[in-house]
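Sharing a chain and its predicted structure for anyone who wants a worked example. Both blocks are below, sequence first, tokens second.
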Amino acid sequence: MNSPSPSPQPARDERAKAYRAGARMAKERITREAPLDAAALEAVEASDVIVVSGQYDHVEQVLGALETPFTQVARGQLSQVELRREQLLIVNCPGELPSRDVARIRDFVTIGGSLFTTDWALRNVVERAFPGTVAYNDRPTRDDVVPVEVLDHDNPFLRGVIDGRDEPQWWLEGSSYPIRVLDPDRVRVLIASRELGRRYGESPVAVLIPWGEGEIFHMISHYYLQRTEFRSARHAAKADGYYAEKGMAVLADLKSDIDDLRVGDVESAASSSRLVANVIAAKKRAASKAARVERGGAGEEASR
């Protein structure tokens, strides 16, 4: 178990460049549009976000680009970490965990913890810990890219994720697991793709599942996107056009990166960076509010 640096040196490839630029844009926009979320992100400590390493997905690379502290544990070592209801637990794909860890995750969410999972963790974690909510439809995807759309615009997780002229693409890893909703009264579909539904039978891209006092946030495919596609002239245009759309200037230290990127690259990275930043900020704000309430209650007891 270790606590990696929140700001690893990015590899000099296009995806790392895209996430570096997209994360910086997401943070700037949060500061401008949602100052309380920005303050919450600044207050995050490594113990607030626990990441279980995966073989195929690497959400920690997005967290690193966002300069968000986190604690990373290897698969099978979750028992070495204290899980508290104010934490966010992220389980990378494939999420192959022993039964004792799956049971522990269920208990963690039930008392108020938040769980974030990707792709094969649908079957390996979510189906096992939270039966009857969502399931893999047994129709694996091909290596593919599909357009996505927000369905629940009022959800705080989705603030600023897709707006204006945005046309974000979502990469489907070969053999990604489409999400079948088993309990539509409980499960909320936040992001969907009609193209995903046509090709693979299920349209949900991201779902939110209340469970006990906590919640599960699950997404198809890998959160660290490996590629995108340029399906329009706008997508293929130089990346500084995306900054112009958002009324933002390209920061000096990013200009060399931006020269190698297109609108589609930065748009997808900025959207996914903003989403995970929103999830972390919402959890941190809720935990801080609960702590204030508890302190207030303890003060009342002490004064009696």
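Comments welcome. The longest helix spans residues 263-303.
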